[in-house]
Amino acid sequence: MPLQYLIFDASDDGQGNGSWEAMASVRAHQQAAQQAEVDTLLAWISTHSPGPRGPLDEGGVWDMDEHRQTDGEWTTVTLTLVGPWAWGETLWAHFAPCNT
Predict the structure, then answer these.
(1) Which end of the chain has fewer CB atoms within 10 angstroms, the N or the C?
(2) In this structure, is the dihedral angle defined by the CA atoms of residues 9, 82, 38 and 1, taken in order, positive or negative?
(3) DSSP state of 98
(4) Residue 99 carries which DSSP code?
(5) DSSP 15
(6) Contact status, residue 44 vs residue 62, Cβ threshold 8 Å
(7) pLDDT tens digit string along 7-18?
(8) DSSP track, 33-91
(9) Cα dihedral sign for 76, 69, 35, 92?
(10) What residue ranges do the domains of the chain occupy?
């Protein structure tokens, strides 16, 4: 399923882990579609989890933070994921827009 709203930026720590930040900012009439995309992504993450969730420095294998902010007509969602680089690459390959 190619993403329509979320835009990802990846960073490799050079030790086998990475971080991925996804952000989408939409107007009110697009919020339901944006939320459906976020829900689909979160379901994939839950199903394909590489191990226990939690801070990496406390024994977790992956972790995530979700932030949502509404400012007038616009809603912005930011997801930050950390975990094994190969896991993130698999996630990206599954959701990458067709033109990448």
Answers:
(1) C
(2) positive
(3) T
(4) T
(5) S
(6) no
(7) 989 999 999 999
(8) HHHHHHHHHHHHHHHT--S-BS-GGGT-SBEEEEEEEEETTEEEEEEEEEEEHHHHHHH
(9) positive
(10) 7-93
